[in-house]
Amino acid sequence: MPVAIRRHCLTARAALWRSRWACWSKPGRRTTGQIAWPEPPGPDTIAGVRPLITFLTDFGPASTAVCQGVMVGICPQADIIVISHQITRYSIAEGARTLVFALPSMPVGTHVAVVDPGVGTDRLALALRTPRGDVLVGPDNGLLVAAAAALGGIDEVRSVENRELMLPVVSSSFHGRDVFAPVAAYLATGVPLERVGPSVPVERLVRLPEPHPTIRDGVLETEITQVLLFGNVTFAGGAAELQAALGPLDFGQQVAIEFDRGDGKAAVREVTTWERTFGRVPVGASLLLVESEGQLSFADNQGDAARRLGLAVGQAVRIRAG
């Protein structure tokens, strides 16, 4: 779009917002039904880039859409990108790793994430600011910290306590809709972070344990950290750790992978191929490769390795020369 036309559209949009808010005579926060409407966004919000909200949940599509509706009602000019609504239910670790994967590719914005098995308990609700200007909103259960680190760290933490930024009725079981979505939308309109609630020390935040591989003579001990959509599984560690344990490896060389069952049954053992990418092995064949984020990954070419072998996050894995 030519710059002159874009400026005209933005000016018209700003005028429309002003006319909407002129319809209400009383200043301040207003509500319509369950939706709490903000004051009109300031000039930095409208005259520049449209505010961005990203969203990640384990809710599935319907409840995620409800939360999006709340955010659009408060901040209708926002662009909302749903990173995923298919996080494995209750898997905080999977949600955290997905945020680490996705957020560095996103523009600066407000990033709300809800994988919240502790909803309704005394766990904190958080808003974190990063050095580049992002704000991450979600529960204090380890979901946000690694993603904030991937964006440069944490400059400020606030406990979400201001009821004026939540829906009028806050349930004990749906904070994604009642707390996190409206707070994120208000922040996207330009509400200052300090209005969210009191400051929280960074060192107080809940952190998830970070799995690390163990290098032994002739074997790499690791674990499954993620199961992806196509059935690929990701391991802790990369090519450097693998070759430190097994010695130099050439593409096409065989390796043996053992997956612990954890139920008293014998480990599942698979001889596979160390390769550069999927298409270097026949369709249906398995391979060990380095995935896009630099971690080791086990996959079936055009298949579902996790389903075939019954693999899950947290399973112990040993890799040896084939």
Task: Summarize the structure in short.
The protein has 322 residues and is α+β, with helices and mostly antiparallel strands. It is 26% helix and 25% strand. Helix 3 runs parallel beside helix 6.
What is the topology, as strand order, of the major beta sheet?
A: 10-11-15-14-13-12-16
Q: What is the end-to-end distance?
A: 57 Å
In the CATH hierarchy, what is the superfamily of the largest domain?
Answer: S-adenosyl-l-methionine hydroxide adenosyltransferase, N-terminal
Return Rg in Å: 23 Å
CATH architecture of the largest domain: 3-Layer(aba) Sandwich
Poorly predicted regions are 1-47
Strand content: 25-35%
Q: State the share of residues found in helices, binned by percent.
A: 25-40%
CATH class of the largest domain, please?
A: Alpha Beta
Instruction: Report the principal-axis shape.
Output: elongated
Largest sheet: 7 strands, mixed, barrel
- The total of helices stands at 8
Structural class by secondary-structure content: alpha+beta
Q: How many β strands by DSSP?
A: 16
What is the number of domains? Answer: 2
Mean pLDDT, all residues: 87
CATH topology of the largest domain: the name is Rossmann fold
Order of helices and strands: HEEHEHEHEEEHEHEEEHEEEEHE
